[in-house]
Fold:
Amino acid sequence: MTATLLGSADAPAASVPSTGRARRRGRHRKWVLLFLAPWAAGMVLFFGYPLLATVYFSFTNYDGLNTADFVGLRNYVFMFTSDPLVKAAAYNTLWLVVVLTVGRLAFAMGVAQILTKVRNGSGFLRALCYLPSLAPPVAATLTFVFLFNPGTGPVNTILGWLGINGPLWFNDPNLSKPSLTLLTLWGSGELMIIILAAMLDVPGDLYEAADLDGAGPWMKFRKITLPSIAPVLLYGVVNSIIFALQYFTQAVVAGSVASGSADAVGNSKLIGYPDNSTLTFPVWMYNEGFRSYHMGYASAMAVLLFIVSFAFTAILIRQLRAGKAEAS
Amino acid sequence: MATLTATAVATRPAPKPKKRHPRDILNWIAVHAVALALGVGFALPIVFVVLTAFMSDQQALTSDLWPRSWHPENFLTVFEKAPMLEYFGNSLLYSILATAGMLLSSIPAAYALARLRFRGSNLIFMLVIAAMMLPPQVVAVPIYSMWANLHLTGTLWPLVVPYFLGDAFSIFLLRQFFVTVPQDYFDAARMDGCNEFQMLYRVLVPMTKPGLAAAGLFTFLYTWNDYFGPLLYVGEKQDSWTLSVALASFRGMHQVQWNLTMAATVLVLVPVIVLFLFAQKSFVKGITFTGVKG
Structure:
């Protein structure tokens, strides 16, 4: 019953009797068209067309108002050779992709493993672990910038009781991304529940058999748990990478609130504060496209973002296909 | 809260209550000590936020953790400092319209993908996955230009209209629920002369209410929490701000002390927590279906 995301794509095939399929297909056609029409319109308007238009704009000089002038590869040349900040932005996003993906997976697996062992009060504990992941990112970010603020924040106050001189956290260029990482781990409850559900689906007799063979906890985790939850982990990895590639809200809000200079739109003049350490690729793209109106250049950045994110989506889709081939 | 245990995430059967070894007891203590620390760690941030929200202006400038005197009027002051009710209304409008639009457009699409066999259905399913995984920033420039040409930037329309034309994540989630309904029900309905539309609304919808609830909740929550969309389209127009945008700029615009900012944060968090308490079953069922079950 518990097929994975990767194996489930073919579920309906088994439930439809193969006799009279052609006849049914013909009868279905008008219904299929009717049911999919809104989706198809949305797909053209908000996926297909804008994707092609982004590629087109990336070869132009476009400010959003006047007609786009074709400039060939100039935006790409500028991006790869001259833009002083795009390197910092790409580095920050790469940092987040690596650290957030590894961190989220490891943390979620660790917490889920503990949750499988808790016997008393587990429902309440699960609710506590899950709830922060529902918090609006803006509210969660404000919470953490307050908790970690160097002057009066509870974290440094408590560290002070222990005789530790707390660091500057969101105000320190070396610690702003690790601070964002803590915020992200606090909100990774969704992944925990997905992994927990997968862990609880592993048949208990596998562990009993391993116990008889004298396997230790690490051996059991590596040989039984890990292979059993692998498909869910793959989904978690791809999901986390895409999440990190589009990391925007938390970086913008943390930077502007910590700098104390948030203007009317929550968009700091000191973008990427401190020292461009929270300037992620999408934040810089947003700034170029919608603050400076260099929309042609922003489109070139969007194309790069698309290529990278689609490479990871393609891994997921390939797995889906493989799952289908196996099922049929 | 105990329902979380009883739903999609069932606990493994407890070991039979035979005599306990001292090692088991130590194990129990170790596991529950770590679990307790985890629970405290997850809850503390919110606790500190709430405590600070009740502090006086003067005390909020200190590093005190506990309010010396309680000031619930802070929550009223937030509404005086900024038109929070208007922002609340905008957020509510965005979320309700988007959820309604999603249900109208995505239920039929998910039904077609889950139950109807037709050429190209696999390709369409792959396209849904690709759209679901697309970072919204990638297509922001042309879509923004499109709405600007229609003179609709500065309104909530650019945020709401796409949901009436199918939402990839919801279609995916609903499809995962729809494929679990046994084929017999549809065969029986067909014998009774139901057409596809009647099967959708008489058989499928009543049978997959938890799935519809989960998809609705996720859309509501996603739009309620959304910051990038509202910042892009209504960031320059303060009358149309949603709570997220207003909260992001609250501290810079209204004061330096943390107490009112934290009170505003609590006000934004409360609806989400209430929603969770009323519908945690649907939430948990929904997320396990996105990643795991089919």
About this structure: Chain A touches chain B through 133 residues (CB under 8 Å). The longest strand of chain A covers residues 60-61.
